[in-house]
Write a structure and sequence with these properties.
Largest sheet: none
Oligomer: single chain
Order of helices and strands: HHHHHH
Low-confidence stretches: 136-140
Shape: elongated
Radius of gyration: 25 Å
Number of strands: 0
Number of helices: 6
Distance between the termini: 31 Å
């Protein structure tokens, strides 16, 4: 049986390969973070601060459940008693920037994992690659 020819890479070749994957990861995060920053009002109003509105889905459900059980609760209130304040000069801008960065990372996380897997998987043996899949762990 003929042996497969193994494609050996030097340490610097591995670093170059890793650099390419990291650059693609950073570009993806920057693109998604830019989109999150452009739509930051939507992100704040509809995602982050949505629970401040009393018509939030969970509050309606809990209010109806409390009324059904005859329990007095604050989920049926008219408004949420909360006031948001910025304590620094650029507080709102800083909140927008950090929300964009974290949102960019969270949304692009599947692509980040994919790029890391593309770097790691060529170094694994076929049985290691097979066992790294989640669904094969439960197969007898």
């Amino acid at each position: 049986m003929a042996k497969k020819e193994v494609n050996e890479m030097s340490f610097l070749d591995h670093l170059e390969e890793l650099r390419g994957h990291l650059i693609r990861i950073v570009i993806a995060i920057v693109i998604v973070a830019t989109l999150v920053f452009v739509f930051s009002r939507f992100v704040f109003d509809e995602i982050i601060f949505a629970p401040l509105e009393m018509n939030f889905l969970t509050y309606d459900f809990l209010c109806n459940g409390a009324n059904f059980l005859g329990v007095d609760t604050t989920f049926c209130a008219e408004e949420m008693p909360m006031i948001l304040q910025n304590r620094t000069m650029g507080g709102q801008f800083q909140a927008d920037i950090w929300t964009a960065i974290l949102g960019g990372f969270i949304i692009s996380f599947p692509y980040v994992v994919y790029q890391l897997w593309k770097f790691i998987s060529p170094g694994l043996h076929s049985n290691e690659r097979k066992h790294s899949r989640g669904c094969n762990a439960f197969v007898a």
